[in-house]
Design goal:
Oligomer: single chain
Number of strands: 20
Number of helices: 2
Radius of gyration: 22 Å
Low-confidence stretches: none
Distance between the termini: 47 Å
Order of helices and strands: EEEHEEEEEEEEEEEEHEEEEE
Mean pLDDT: 96
Structural class: mainly beta
Length: 311
């Protein structure tokens, strides 16, 4: 019997022991879209034997792992001070989660005691389990679109198995709001409000699967945070990205999306260095600047390059 690609359930749960299946259940379901799975990555060692027939002599698969990417709608939990379901995924991307009950949830980058998750992707009765999962993410807020978090993960390999599709429980996951003038009330660079077409904060974590005798691990080793924003050009006396880039100026960037408590997302980079504007764009007959900035730390811990606060 054929298997249906659309019949998918994705579960995610933090691991208490790295690489040990955390056994997620239906209450750990993730509402995802654009799921892409590479089920058996690795390399094939050619035996390259000398034989009388001079033909292929077989290969040995090694360094087996699995990669998966998907998008999750960027919305809070619906309750201020309660972490959203996707928070565990950010924690597997080198982020800390700080919860102030009934008030806020804050995410920022960390560099030690990195966490991992177990992912279970069931596609019409075939389970692709993933353990020791770590990855990277990007936050995309574009006008007239659904804001998304784009995840890319690497996992240690587990053989697929026939397992019944679990019952997913999506309780507590609110509907998202489209990005618009009404729903996205704040976008500033250097405290200057700008008309924005799209915004993207990319974590760009460096992820590498390591396979040694005695240890196999998905390593998160460094990152290249960037902010990209396409904005309406204004008079240079109001905002001059060319001078900012030439003088290596560090400026604050802030965007806020959402209107009601429990579903307000604020992303702030207090010290982002403006990069050289390398082009101009025609946006419906209006001149637009594609801008790129690099968030830099303000303290020695480098934990405040950017923060995302849910209220």
């Amino acid at each position: 019997m054929s298997r249906l690609w659309r019949l998918k359930v994705l579960l995610a749960k933090l691991e208490t022991t790295y690489g040990t299946d955390a056994a997620p259940t239906g209450g750990d379901a993730i509402l995802a879209t654009d799921v892409r799975l590479s089920p058996m990555q690795g390399q094939d060692l050619d035996r390259n034997l000398d034989t009388p027939h001079g033909g292929p002599t077989g290969t040995i698969p090694v360094d087996l792992h699995r990669t998966i990417s998907f998008k999750v709608e960027l919305a809070g939990s619906g309750t201020a001070g309660t972490a959203p379901r996707w928070g565990r995924l950010l924690r597997a991307c080198g982020c800390a989660e700080t919860v102030t009950v009934a008030t806020s949830v804050v995410y920022n980058r960390v560099y030690s005691n990195l966490e991992s998750v177990t992912l279970h992707l069931n596609i019409d009765g075939t389970l692709y389990a993933m353990v020791g999962v770590r990855g990277t993410a990007a936050f995309d807020i574009s006008a007239s679109g659904i804001p998304y978090i784009e995840f890319e993960f690497t996992a240690l390999y587990v053989a697929p198995a026939d397992v019944a599709v679990p019952t997913a429980d999506f309780t507590g996951i609110p509907d998202p709001l489209a990005a618009s003038d009404a729903n996205t009330p704040v976008f500033t660079i250097d405290a200057t409000p700008l008309v924005m077409r799209n915004f993207k904060l990319t974590l760009a974590n460096r992820i590498e699967a390591q396979f040694l005798i005695g240890e196999e691990e998905v390593l998160l080793d460094g990152h290249e945070n960037t902010i990209e924003a396409r904005v309406r050009a204004v008079a240079l006396s109001t905002f001059n990205p060319f001078t900012m880039a030439a003088t290596q100026e560090k400026v604050a960037v802030e965007i806020e999306h959402g209107k009601s408590a429990g579903n307000i997302v604020n992303i702030a980079a207090p010290r982002a260095q403006m990069q050289r504007p390398e082009g101009l764009e025609d946006g419906q007959g209006r001149k637009e600047w594609p801008l790129r900035l690099v968030p830099l730390p303000t303290t020695a811990t480098a934990a405040d390059q950017w923060t995302m606060t849910l209220t």
